[in-house]
Amino acid sequence: MCGGDEAAYAAAEPVMQVYAKLCRRIGESGAGQMTKMCNQIAIAGLVQGLAEALHFAEKAGLDGRAVVEVISQGAAGSWQMSNRYETMIDDKWNHGFAVDWMRKDLGICLSTADETGASLPVTALVDQFYKDVQKMGGGRWDTSSLFARLRKLG
């Protein structure tokens, strides 16, 4: 996710391809940053959705691992599901992308949304949920700790 002059991108692309899974020029300068915001917006919703699904499964007396084994093979499957469901179930938050960093990113997203006129109601809500996690002492916990918030709520 890059933005900038086409010629500058073309010169830098061979170097970026050495370490990047996918390298693509999205547009002019700033487009890469905007694309990163899109990524964080999507992740926030995905992680909250996964936390709620696992919380629901737990409250319904289901085996969360079995539920994920099944639903991950369908439309609900995602990187977040494959890589974060176990940390949620096992209450392991000492890895990954910190809540403090996600709140910083979501703050940038929400501020930019105000400037551009974009409506981000779910992102704003999940940002508040991450604020709750910070109040629980989880600022340095992984973003999958949204599940801890749900467990605390009951």
What tags apply to this protein structure?
single chain; 154 residues; mainly alpha; N-(1-d-carboxylethyl)-l-norvaline Dehydrogenase, domain 2; two-stranded parallel sheet; 2 strands; 67% helix; globular; NAD binding
What can be said about this structure in brief?
The protein has 154 residues and is mainly alpha-helical. The protein has a single domain, classed as Orthogonal Bundle (N-(1-d-carboxylethyl)-l-norvaline Dehydrogenase, domain 2). It is 67% helix and 3% strand.
Model description:
By secondary structure, this protein is mainly α. The protein has one domain (40-153): Orthogonal Bundle (N-(1-d-carboxylethyl)-l-norvaline Dehydrogenase, domain 2), CATH 1.10.1040. The chain is built from seven helices and two strands, in the order βαβαααααα. It has helices at 6-19, 31-59, 64-71, 79-89, 99-116, 121-135, 146-153; strands at residues 2-3, 25-27. It has a two-stranded parallel ribbon with strand order 1-2. Helix 1 (6-19) links the parallel strand 1 and strand 2 (25-27). Helix 2 (31-59) crosses helix 6 (121-135) and helix 2 (31-59) packs parallel to helix 7. InterPro entries: 6-PGluconate_DH-like_C_sf (IPR008927), 6PGD_dom2 (IPR013328), HIBADH-like_NADP-bd (IPR029154). Residues 30-147 form the 3-hydroxyisobutyrate dehydrogenase-like NAD-binding domain.
